[in-house]
Give the backbone structure.
Amino acid sequence: MATMTKGTAKVTLPRDDQILITREFAAPRHLVYRAYTTPELVARWWHADRGTIDSIEIDLRVGGTWRYAMTAHAGFPVVFHGEYLEIVPDERLVSTEVFEGMPEAAATSTVTFTDTDGGTTLAILVQHKNQANRDAHVQSGMEDGLQAALDHLEEVAAGNAASDE
């Protein structure tokens, strides 16, 4: 299996209203999926070293909801929530995504998990309603936090691989 791939997420803008994030992980697909969808595991990576997790709620079923909340080191809340629209275990998740600080910029995220050379390629396609919302998302500084969060996601998934052996 490949070595850890720290800081290697690629952020591209395929259309005026989209953000595409791709990253390779040195962990099997089912473990990356598990780390992405299990509340106690999400709590270990989603904070991206930028705050303290307050709650992680996941009702992993079509029509179920998710909500991630943390308090940033600067003291302000960072909360996202959404509803699952499609779930194919170990392969694909589609959900709405709302940053509670800017609810008018709700988006739809499609997350795919693909086997790649003994590891996993994660692709997150964020579909915004318009270019202004997409641009606000990009200009929020999301990429730095994203890199750190995905680094932690890989550590959690790879740690699960060691415990599965």
Remarks:
- The chain has a mean pLDDT of 92.
- The radius of gyration is 15 Å.
- The CA atoms of residues 97 and 109 lie 7 Å apart.
- Residues 10-48+89-164 form a domain with the Alpha-D-Glucose-1,6-Bisphosphate; Chain A, domain 4 fold (CATH 3.30.530.20).
